Amino acid sequence: MIGWLTDFFRLAGGLLYWNGRKTAFRWRRQPCPCQSPSDSGRAGETRCEACPTWNQPWRFRRICPDLRQTPAGLCCGVDTADVRPFWGRALAYYATGGLAAYLLIVLAAFGLLRRIGYPVQLGDLTWPPAWHRIQESRATYFLERGTHALAAGNLREALFSLNIAYELNPDNYTAGLTLARLCQTGQPAFSDQIYEQLLQRHPAQAPQTAQAWLRALLARGAFSQLQTLAYQRVLADPATAAPWLHALIFAGRQRHDPTPIQRLLETPTGQPWRALLETELLWLAGRQADVTPRLLQAWTPAHPYCVRYQADLLLALHQPTAAVERLASAPRLPNSEQVRIFLAACATGGARDRLRREVGNLLGATPTAPAVDLLATHLIRYPDADLLALVVDRVTATPLPPTDDAFIAYTALFCAAGVGHDAPRQRQLADLLKQRAGSTFAAIDTAQEFFARREHPQGIGGILVALMLSLDTTYALHERYPLAMSPARP
Question: Are 454 and 490 in contact (CB under 8 A)?
């Protein structure tokens, strides 16, 4: 075995050494390197001086096939003048050896990567143009690891793994979106950066990305960025402009900044919404007397969002009857919007008996998560101790099923209890949420503190960013505790 290994290494070096010396001989730069100079130099009579150092001299034939076995021993099979190098043979040996070594390395790497858990394919390692898939496989591995960690409640491990997954493959949309959502609480600037990258890299998923970013910006009260995002989305997709118009208007009111609305009015995209945008500019300017007549008119085009906008402003002007009439004389709004406006009209107009009947009808025999969420949001905008007790007692007697929608509805009801200063029911709902979350859910304790003291270093945005709430509930809480509000406001 040792002799074979010794000859193997002699072969590896000898292919270059002897072919190199033979090449120099052919160029007449040195004497023949491998024939004995004391012999005749004729074929079959001249001994080979290169092979005796080998453990098995006959193996030298792999370097020089001219070697011959004769009665006198191993001799050169050609005359001195015909001695030549065999570079083709050398190249074939080196190519075969290199390929064998390459395949061994590939197999070893494949086994190691698969043992770690990377879902690589053998072809991805073997074929160099496919090596980029190794990074993608590693990204997939860390994405799965982060997903499992998130499901297990291990937030630190989830952030670590998802961050690596996104760094390895920035085109992995799922990893980027999940990471952006997780970072929006502790690392908002990093989260915004990822959302921006996702919008640029994945235009086909832009609506989904923008909606997720909207929720993050709205929750933490980043209204300046929300104005920019909403303005860009209205221009990018006029067909779905309504929710972005609402975000743009809401952010403008929070910041008392009409500039983006004025800019939108000057674009072709803003022309179909001219009546609404002009009315909003008057509202922001405090010209309520000029706003009221506009709200009682039918706008063209009669978009459902225009009707909602008119009804909401009429409610803000304490004209509930006119708000309900606008619903009846315009295109049909989604049922949830009609119910929301009708409940608000009853609360604004003081129709308490009618309001209580409508709430009872909404709850029905078996309350649903959408109905509870709608009622909780209404109670945030229009606190009512009796109605809050009715809703909480009903969902306590008939609990909602253990779904995400139910968790969101319970959280909204928890916030409504905080707004209504109903500490016992808020504690009851807090315990229920912790039980359903299966954890201490520290964000609930922080929220309880906020509602008790009306104080938080980051305002209501510091609370909402850590809670699961619907968009309308988030809007309602920002209305209740606006950005410019004094922390100690009752």
Answer: yes
Residues 345 and 323 in one domain: yes
> Could you tell me the pLDDT band of residue 391, with boundaries at 50, 70 and 90?
very high
The reply to whether 78 falls in a domain is yes
Distance separating alpha carbons of residues 183 and 169, to the nearest angstrom: 18
Q: Based on the domain organization, do 381 and 449 belong to the same domain?
A: yes
Q: Convert the pLDDT of each residue in 62-108 to its tens digit.
A: 888 888 888 878 888 888 888 888 888 888 888 888 888 888 887 88
Number of domains in the chain: 3
- Residues 376 and 455 placed together within one structural domain of the fold: yes
Q: Give me 445's structure tokens.
A: 């304790």
* CA pair distance 284, 375, nearest whole angstrom: 29
Which amino acid is located at 216 in the chain?
A: A
CA distance 217 to 344: 26
141 vs 189, residue with greater confidence: 189
74 by DSSP, 3-state: which? strand
Mean of per-residue pLDDT scores for the chain: 86
What's the half-sphere exposure (Cβ side, CA atoms, 13 Å) at 76? Answer: 23
Separation CA 180–CA 190 (nearest Å):
8
**Alpha-carbon separation of residue 295 from 264, 306, 315 (angstroms):** 20, 9, 11
pLDDT attached to residue 112: 76
DSSP 25-36: HHTTSS--SSB-
Do 320 and 441 lie in a common domain?
A: no
Q: State pLDDT tens for residues 358-369.
A: 999 999 889 999
User: Looking at 59, 85, 111, which one is the last position of a domain?
Assistant: 85
Please, what's the b/e burial string for 54-67 (b: 16 or more CB within 10 A of its CB; e: otherwise)?
beebebbbbbbebb
Compute the distance between CA of residue 112 and CA of residue 27 in angstroms, rounded to an integer: 50
Closest-CA residue to 47 (of 73, 83, 71): 73
Distance of CA 270 to the CA centre of its chain: 31
Q: Are 416 and 380 in contact (CB under 8 A)?
A: yes
Domain limits at 43?
A: 2-85
Cβ within 8 Å of residue 265, ≥6 positions away:
274, 277, 278, 281
Where among 85, 118, 144 does a domain terminate? 85
